[in-house]
Amino acid sequence: MEKPILKPNCPNFSSGPCAKRPGWGVDVLKNALVGRSHRSKEGKARLNEVSDLMKKVLCLPEDYRIGIVAGSDTGAFELAMWTLLGSRPVDIFGWEAFGKDWITDIVKQLKLQNVKENKADYGKLPNLASADFSHDIIFTWNGTTSGVKVPNADWISSDREGLTMCDATSGVFAMDIDYSKLDVITFSWQKVLGGEAAHGVIVLSPRAVKRMEENEPKVSWPLPKLFRLATGGKLKPGELEYSTVNTPSLLCVEDAIDSLKWAQSIGGLKALISRSNANLKAIENWVEKTDWVDFLAETKETRSNTSICLKITADWFQKLDDGEKTKAAKKITSMLDKEGVAHDINSYAKAPAGIRIWGGATIETSDIEALTLWLDWAYCQVAASYSSTCCCKGDCK
Questions:
Q1: DSSP 253
Q2: CATH 3.90.1150.10: which residues of the chain?
Q3: Handedness of CA 41, 42, 43, 48 (dihedral sign)
Q4: For domain 31-264, which architecture applies?
């Protein structure tokens, strides 16, 4: 197989931090309030602006609260667990690395007793129908490390007694999510918006705010200052939106504002979802005609349109032990990295060996299409070193 000529215009397919929006340049940061306090009148105005833009683009319910916290999505979700859990039993669903991390936090760190763990292997989704909505429910909307998403929120009761707490970091801004079914939503700018790392975002329904205020004097474990959103049993207006506990980077805030304004300029949430779906479709079209690769997700309805995870199905690859599979897959991704075609598309370290391609809204579909040609080429080079019957029938170049 001859080496392709056309390369993606942007080779950044990392699943976090993700590619910047098309047309991004450092000049978009020229009005950032560098050297200014986030507690100044102007600083608070910027924080209020980014909060309002996030609510508008996501079409969140009017009475939901949204704000910036420390520690990226991890910090935001751990803040939610440490401040909201404890008053009810917990049902937690984990089918990839981060969801299973939340299980560890709840069982081994918070040491909650009445916990029902619902786990599934990579590529699969646990039985969501088993959720007991008199309990608090914890799950990821999209498994960033597995490429397996929750298809919809139909399984969530509108008459729930407990809270639904969702780590939505690689699903938000890219998937059709009924936010009225979620009481806590966390994410970071570094995913679908292509923003900078280290800043987390937390969204709270009125029910979640009420729980936080009720829980504030009752939590029976150490609560770091960064997690203390409620003060004296009350989460006051502005204390989440623009009077943050931590010190956010106003440079990163400016970058997030730029990304959100770009989202509005192309048609808002519907356009972002459409772009991500088009990227998944381009991969689906390629996989359908390619005999050495398939989706890690076992069913079409659970395929992620952001963290698109692929497994290598060729006979020679399946005969390798796990260590050799990892080496072979990394040879493919390393070749494309050296060619300047695709950076950071190796699968997550704890996931099955394969390929992971970010398909969020900041990625151009034409770049995905160009990448697939290079994937075939790189695969043939590697396959030829393992098997005499590679896809090129001995004619690899």
A1: H
A2: 269-386
A3: positive
A4: 3-Layer(aba) Sandwich (3.40)
Residue 392 has pLDDT above 70, yes or no: no
Torsion of the alpha carbons at 338, 339, 343 and 344, rounded to the nearest 10: -50
pLDDT tens figures, 103-114 = 999 999 999 999
**Extended strands (E) in the chain:** 65-70, 90-94, 115-119, 136-140, 142-143, 148-149, 164-167, 184-188, 199-204, 293-295, 307-312, 354-358
| Other CB atoms within 10 A of residue 111 CB | 10
Where residue 190 falls (left for φ over 0; alpha for ψ -120 to 50; beta otherwise) is alpha
Structure tokens at 131: 């959720």
Domain with CATH 3.40.640.10 in the chain: 31-264
What CA–CA distance (Å, rounded) separates 99 from 181? 19
- What is the DSSP secondary structure assignment for residue 352, as one 8-state letter? P
Orientation angle between helical segments 250-265 and 268-288, nearest 10 degrees: 80
What integer pLDDT is reported at residue 391 of this predicted model?
Answer: 58
Which DSSP state fits 302? G
Write the pLDDT tens digit of every residue in 18-71: 999 999 999 999 999 999 999 999 999 999 999 999 999 999 999 999 999 999
For the stretch 172-229, pLDDT in tens is: 999 999 999 999 999 999 999 999 999 999 999 999 999 999 998 888 899 999 999 9
Class level of CATH domain 269-386: alpha beta
